[in-house]
Design goal:
Layout: H1 24-40, H2 56-68, H3 79-85, H4 87-94, H5 102-115, E1 121-123, E2 126-129, H6 131-136, H7 148-161, H8 177-186, E3 190-191, H9 193-198, E4 208-214, E5 217-228, E6 231-239, E7 249-256, E8 262-265
Antiparallel strand pairs: 1-2, 3-8, 4-5, 4-8, 5-6, 6-7
């Protein structure tokens, strides 16, 4: 895989605890995962400030988490406990075996990420932050780092790697929808919405949806999971219930290609 940033999110360097010889970056990672546990399990009570200070609030949140997984609640985060924090991410990136075809692997990988509930966080008053965003975006995070293309390319990268293929032979590594749309035009692999409306059969499961704002401007992207009637079933990152291009997580959505201007980057030339 080209996108291996997630490996840096799975570990801390040493045990961290209140009053200990703590490492600020490790404490921030712990606090981030405490907040993500609350997002995955609403009402758990582990949401804390992400400030790198292992104070009483962080200690109490750790104890709550420890009780929730039935281990001694001493408030100490060892590397092994941190592995429990991050198991969702590890399983998202490593928990899928290759399927019969690359397209089937793309669908399986996308569903597996969705199942493990990737969310962004607000850190230092910056949205589009946290372990999942950094993993999709090569370590980058912050309000300006919209991560929908980072998510989509992670899925393609992971799926193709399962088959010994390099996804950068299909498209450039980028975080920009415009880059992929323009590249698709140059490769004659971008199916414009006008053609899709005439012949939806041109689109295949596993292709990449691009939401078009103007002729050469695309603002959001997704993996196409299915084509049903006038709609695409998608899995996409950095969206929400409104279909935003700057939402908070990974979701499955339905988008109507007759009511919205949706182009498709086809993978059929290569797979």
């Amino acid at each position: 895989m080209k996108k291996t940033q997630y490996l840096k999110e799975l570990n801390i360097s040493a045990p961290q605890q209140r009053g200990g010889a703590n490492k600020k970056s490790d404490v921030e990672k712990i606090q981030s995962w405490l907040c993500l546990q609350e997002k995955m399990h609403p009402g758990l009570g582990t949401m804390v400030n992400i400030d790198g200070d292992f104070g009483p609030a962080t200690e109490n949140a750790v104890k709550i988490y420890q009780r929730s997984i039935d281990v001694p609640s001493n408030g100490v985060v060892t590397p092994s406990l941190f592995m429990a924090f991050t198991s969702h991410m590890k399983n998202a990136f490593e928990g899928v075996a290759p399927k019969a075809s690359i397209r089937e692997s793309i669908l399986s990988v996308a569903e597996n990420h969705l199942k493990h509930l990737p969310f962004e966080l607000n850190i230092r008053q910056q949205s589009n932050s946290g372990p999942w965003v950094r993993s999709y975006m090569g370590g980058n995070e912050g309000a300006s780092w919209l991560w929908c293309m980072g998510f989509v390319q992670t899925i393609i990268d992971q799926a193709m790697s399962l088959h010994g293929r390099d996804f950068t032979k299909i498209m450039p590594l980028t975080y920009s929808c415009d880059t992929i749309g323009t590249y698709g035009i140059g490769q004659n692999t971008l199916i414009r919405n006008e053609k899709i409306r005439k012949d939806p059969g041109l689109v295949k499961k596993g292709d990449i949806l691009l939401i078009r704002k103007s002729l050469h401007d695309w603002v959001h992207t997704a993996i196409i999971m299915d084509i049903k009637g006038d709609t695409f079933v998608t899995i996409e990152g950095n969206t929400n219930n409104d279909g935003s291009s700057n939402g908070d997580g990974v979701y499955k959505r339905i988008r109507n290609f007759r009511k919205s201007v949706l182009d498709v980057f086809s993978l059929s030339k290569w797979i």
